[in-house]
C-alpha cells in the first residue's frame, strides 16, 4: 500500500482505528493492572503511576479503558457482522424472490422498525439473561432491519439488470443470483453502511450499558465506564469524559476509513467503465 496516496483524513482514521484494534486484541498483555483491581484512592489525578488517574473505586482508569476497548469493539463488531449477515441475506432474498415473500418480510421489518430500538432492547434485555451472547443477538436482530431495508433497495435495482436476467435464463438458482450477481455489485453501499452501523452499535451498546442493561460489572465497556464515573463530573473529575472522548474518536476514525474505502471502490468502478 502506498501511504503517500492515502488522503490525510483517511490516514488519521487508519492510525486511530489501528490503535483501538491493537488495544482490543492485546488488552490482557498491555494493561498495567487488572481491570477490577483496586490500586489507589478514589478519583486520583493523572500521575506517573496512573497515567489517566483512577476511577470511582480506585481502579486504574487506563487499564479499565483498554479492557473496555476490547469489550466494546468485540461486541459491536460481532453484532454488526451478524446484523449484516441476516439483513443482507434476507434483503437480497426478498428482492430476488419477490411476490408474497417480499411483502411478508418487508411488512414484518416495518413492524419491528416502528418500535423505538432502544425501548425495544430495554424491554427484551430486562427479561432475558444478562449474557454477552444475549446482548449481541438482541443488538444484531434489531439492527438487521436497517440493513434489510438498504440491501433490499439496492438488490431491487440490480435485480432488473440484463446480466441478472441472463443468469435466470441460463437456469441459475437463487443462491447463484444472490452471491454471484447481486452481492458483488452491492458491496459499495454495504461497505459504507457497515462503518455507520458499526458506530451505531458502539453507541447503542454504550447507551444500554449506561442504563444498566448492557455489559454487567465487574466488566465494563466504555459506556459503562461513563456511568461508573458520571458523578465525578460534578466535582470536576474528568474520569467520565475520557471514555466519552474515546467513543467519539472511534466513531470519527471508523467513518474516515469507511469513506475512504467507499471512494476507492467508486473510483475503481469508474475506471473500469
Structural write-up:
The chain is mainly alpha-helical and 273 residues long. It has one domain (3-34, 60-272): Orthogonal Bundle (MetI-like fold). It contains 9 helices and no strands. It has helices at 8-30, 61-97, 99-113, 117-127, 132-159, 162-169, 174-210, 222-229, 241-272.
Give a quick summary of the entry.
The mean pLDDT is 87. It is built from nine helices and no strands. 37% of the residues are buried.
Tags for this model:
273 residues; mainly alpha; MetI-like fold
CATH architecture: Orthogonal Bundle
The major β-sheet equals: none
Mean pLDDT: 87
- Which regions contain 5 or more consecutive residues with pLDDT less than 50? none
Shape: elongated
Could you give the order of the helices and strands? Answer: HHHHHHHHH
**Radius of gyration (Å):** 22 Å
Strand fraction: under 5%
- Please bin the fraction of helical residues: over 70%
CATH class: Mainly Alpha
Q: Structural class, from secondary structure content?
A: mainly alpha
CATH topology, by name, is: MetI-like fold
Number of strands: 0
Estimate nothing, just give the exact number of structural domains: 1
Distance between the termini: 24 Å
- Treating each run of at least 4 consecutive H or I residues as one helix, how many helices? 9
What is the CATH homology-level superfamily? MetI-like
